[in-house]
Amino acid sequence: MMTRRTAIALMMFCLAALPAFGQSADTEDAAELLSKRLSDYRSYQADFEQTVQSPDGERLQKTTGELSARRGGDFFWHTDPPMEQKIVTSGKKVRVYDPDLRQVTIYPLEERIASTPALLLSGEVGNLSETFRIRRETTSEGERFILEPRDKDTLFLELSMRFDKEGVLQGMELHDSLDQRSDLQFRDVVLNESIPDDRFELDAPDDVDVIRNEGNGAR
């Protein structure tokens, strides 16, 4: 089974040129605006700082790292030590390297992750407003889009995406099914630069254990 830590990391990638055809006028308008913001995103690279809070607001975890993603289903996520982890997707597989365990785990790219915001940055999802209820709010820094899944059988309850006034994604907040909140702040964002193919190949020592996990779900 895919761990919740890995599943939540996958779900933080929520950017793509998304064709949107709506259920309601508000959702359709917001989906169309979101699609416009992302229509020129062919690749995205950034450093990040992620904070996880409990339902009562206690900080449970703070991590930093870097990410790269490009259209077509490829992304790379690296969390810095002491909780180091690398996640790479290419095609239909997710490869996770945990250096402290000296272990690589290979998962199928689960449908409920791939069809939610999981890989919208590096892939494409059609009919966005059939999958989410979407609303838009203006802020002093720019704007925010809030996505709520129509299907309740998902790993998250709500996702917000924060853009600056130039339309660049600067942060996300994920409210998950355990009532925890994960806030992700991006810095040093680079858009649409070419990313070498080997960025999306997992770099791990030859002598690590390799586990092929064909199970579904997250724990």
Helix and strand topology:
Layout: H1 4-11, H2 25-38, E1 43-53, E2 59-70, E3 74-79, E4 85-90, E5 93-98, E6 103-108, H3 111-114, H4 128-131, E7 132-138, E8 142-149, E9 156-164, E10 169-176, E11 181-191, E12 209-212
Parallel strand pairs: 6-12
Antiparallel strand pairs: 1-2, 1-11, 2-3, 3-4, 4-5, 5-6, 7-8, 8-9, 9-10, 10-11
Protein name: Outer-membrane lipoprotein carrier protein
Keywords: Chaperone, Lipoprotein, Periplasm, Protein transport, Signal, Transport
InterPro entries: LolA/LolB/LppX, OM_lipoprot_carrier_LolA-like, OM_lipoprot_carrier_LolA_Pbac
Strand content: 35-45%
The number of distinct β-strands equals 12
Alpha-carbon distance between the termini? 6 Å
Biggest sheet details? 12 strands, mixed
Structural class: mainly beta
In percent, how helical is the residue content?
10-25%
> What letter string, H or E per element, gives the SSE order?
HHEEEEEEHHEEEEEE
**What order do the strands of the largest sheet run in, or round the barrel if closed?**
7-8-9-10-11-1-2-3-4-5-6-12
Please state the overall shape, judged from the principal axes of the Cα atoms.
globular
> What is the CA-atom radius of gyration, in angstroms?
17 Å
Q: Any idea what the CATH superfamily is called?
A: Lipoprotein localisation LolA/LolB/LppX
CATH topology: outer membrane lipoprotein receptor (LolB), chain A
Query: Please, how many domains?
Result: 1
